[in-house]
């Protein structure tokens, strides 16, 4: 039986656990391989010395993970920008409810920006399916990640959801610590960001009134926008399987490979934006009689903020025009950007073709499918932003 108030096996490591964790990390050869990629001029002894300086979770973030993610940002992006960071009060704990594109970086880049502004970092929700590797397990828990179990027995799902809801509320309301959580289970594969009603229901389980309880959490819609997705082919592969067979089985270590590719692959420009606090929205929807209708309306408002805040890059506009055979957004990109992106897409399609042997006469059809899925992935944020504009016109 699940104890809905026992959080020991899901919460991040505490400061008193850090020395033991550091001892394990120092003995882990793969850690040095990872760190040497970030710090090529550092010897193994240099890295050991860095680790020995860590005596708390805060030490780890300021000495190890924070500086590492700054280097990764410099190496793999064309620039990282922020929008509406003034909406964040450093003395207020928030639930950063975010779209989800990259397993590691979505939350890591937010925390880097918070650290730079002297604002306490967030705890981060991460699925247990991503923690099969003992090294990754230690690294994420010492970096303020808490565990969301994805493989709960259906008969225990209600109790587990209650436990997770209790933990999130305790962390924000009692411990005054912010949390980052994706707005739905898993990353967006097709670029269409939609908040899961079930997630909002889970969040409301730990309060007597669903709307008042959600208000206590200080939900702040958060959006990360990547110009290029290093994991786009992983996602297209999954979408293809679902489209053709209706199911998808991950390969062994696929999640780990996605983590590495997401961190090390080129992302172009990246923007993180935070929206408006939802207090007024929650007050308004509290007048709706039906609970499910209240949840649906809240999800709609969150999505509207996310779609509005999403920073559109030339890649998004070019994909939209190419997919729809139009020049509607030609003012948003240069001819050189258009050629560069088209070559990028052609290269990605060719990579998928090479990976699939013996296509034979199906080659052309396969290439068309892959190209359309890639273009749809990059075009969907444009379509969603257009839809927000249409809805606003209809409402006015």
Describe the structure in your own words.
- The chain has 396 residues and is an alpha/beta fold.
- The protein contains 16 helices and seven strands.
- Strands 1-7-6-2-5-3-4 form a seven-stranded mixed beta sheet, with helices on both faces.
- Strand 3, helix 6 and strand 4 form a beta-alpha-beta unit.
- The chain is globular.
- The mean pLDDT is 93.
Strand percentage: 5-15%
Named at the architecture level, the CATH assignment of the largest domain is 3-Layer(aba) Sandwich
- The total strand number stands at 7
- Topology pattern, helix = H, strand = E: HHHHEEHEHEHEHHEHHEHHHHH
Radius of gyration, CA atoms, in whole angstroms: 22 Å
The number of helical segments is 16
- Report the mean per-residue pLDDT as an integer: 93
Major β-sheet annotation: 7 strands, mixed
Helix content: 55-70%
Based on secondary structure, the structural category is alpha/beta
> End-to-end span in angstroms?
52 Å
CATH topology call of the largest domain: Glycerol-3-phosphate (1)-acyltransferase
Level-1 CATH class name of the largest domain: Alpha Beta
Summed up:
With 396 residues, the protein is α/β, with parallel strands linked by helices. It is built from 16 helices and seven strands. Helix 9 (210-216) runs antiparallel to helix 12 and helix 10 (232-245) crosses helix 16.
List descriptors.
2 domains, 396 residues, 16 helices, Glycerol-3-phosphate (1)-acyltransferase, 7-stranded mixed beta sheet, 7 strands, alpha/beta, 10% strand
């Amino acid at each position: 039986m699940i104890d809905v108030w026992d959080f020991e096996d899901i919460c991040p490591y505490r400061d008193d656990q850090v020395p033991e964790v550091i001892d394990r990390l120092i003995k882990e050869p793969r850690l040095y391989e990872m760190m040497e990629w970030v710090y090529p001029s550092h010897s193994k002894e240099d890295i050991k010395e860095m680790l020995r300086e860590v005596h708390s979770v805060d030490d780890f973030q300021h000495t190890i993970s924070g500086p590492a993610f700054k280097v990764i940002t410099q190496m793999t992006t064309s620039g990282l920008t922020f929008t509406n960071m003034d909406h964040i009060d450093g003395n207020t704990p928030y639930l950063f409810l975010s779209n989800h594109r990259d397993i590691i970086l979505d939350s890591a880049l937010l925390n880097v920006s918070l650290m730079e502004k002297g604002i306490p970092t967030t705890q981060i929700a991460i699925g247990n399916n991503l923690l099969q590797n003992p090294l990754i397990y230690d690294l994420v828990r010492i970096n303020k990640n808490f565990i969301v179990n994805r493989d709960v027995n259906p008969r225990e799902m209600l109790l587990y959801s209650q436990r997770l809801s209790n933990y999130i509320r305790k962390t924000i309301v009692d411990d005054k610590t912010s949390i980052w959580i994706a707005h739905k289970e898993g990353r967006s594969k097709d670029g269409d960001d939609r908040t899961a009603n079930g997630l909002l229901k889970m969040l409301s389980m730990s309060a007597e009134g669903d709307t008042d309880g959600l208000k206590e959490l200080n939900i702040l819609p958060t959006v990360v926008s990547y110009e290029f997705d290093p994991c786009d082919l992983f996602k297209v592969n999954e979408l293809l399987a679902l489209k053709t067979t209706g199911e998808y089985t991950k390969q062994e270590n696929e999640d780990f490979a996605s983590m590495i590719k997401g961190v090390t692959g080129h992302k172009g420009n990246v923007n993180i934006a935070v929206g408006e606090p939802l207090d007024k929205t929650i007050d308004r929807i509290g007048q709706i009689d039906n609970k499910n209708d209240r949840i649906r309306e809240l999800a709609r408002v969150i999505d509207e903020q996310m779609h509005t805040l999403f920073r559109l890059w030339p890649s998004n506009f070019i994909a939209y025009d190419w997919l729809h055979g139009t020049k509607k957004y030609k003012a948003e990109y240069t001819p050189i950007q258009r050629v560069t992106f088209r070559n990028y897409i052609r290269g990605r399609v060719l990579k998928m073709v090479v990976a699939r042997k013996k296509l034979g006469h199906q080659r052309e059809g396969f290439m068309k499918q892959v190209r359309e899925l890639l273009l749809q992935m990059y075009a969907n944020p444009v379509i969603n932003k257009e839809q927000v504009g249409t809805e606003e016109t209809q409402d006015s």
